[in-house]
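Q: Structure for this?
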Amino acid sequence: ETGVTQTPRHLVMGMTNKKSLKCEQHLGHNAMYWYKQSAKKPLELMFVYNFKEQTENNSVPSRFSPECPNSSHLFLHLHTLQPEDSALYLCASSQESRNTGELFFGEGSRLTVL
Amino acid sequence: QKEVEQDPGPLSVPEGAIVSLNCTYSNSAFQYFMWYRQYSRKGPELLMYTYSSGNKEDGRFTAQVDKSSKYISLFIRDSQPSDSATYLCAMGFNDMRFGAGTRLTVKP
């Protein structure tokens, strides 16, 4: 596999469910990111990890919990979500963590919260 | 005022037309300017990267940055149906800010 891989591609969950999104990058990058993409709104940066350490948390509600066990894997654990959390969740990676270089995105996980 | 403004469209043009996509921004500290292309059901991919002001050309694509006006543009010449996608501008200094994206359809 190459690039950035996200699973699952689609997820439907109830407000009381617990689920996780997974991201894996095969590019040897040091930084990984979670973004939220909603219709007609700019990409919202949620979390940044650099060398497995969280370096940024953009005031994301605690119902979203990231985990980065190593530089190649990133998870987003979801629990007690709200319908307004329905969106496309994009994982990205980059060589550096300053977030001004090229970002390589996965295809996203489309989340629907009922 | 939003930090980055981008008209979400949608924009529809006939094949062969010249397309102009634009973003304005408010933070004069921005130095990195990018355009990402996002096909339906795919993640964004980098299309053009420009540092500071000026023009950059790559095939049918030209990126322009006017820092004095805080305005960036992406021109697509001889547009093709395969150019149909959402185009996101992005810019920053220590971090990156994205526009909302403009959805473009090129009709055969």
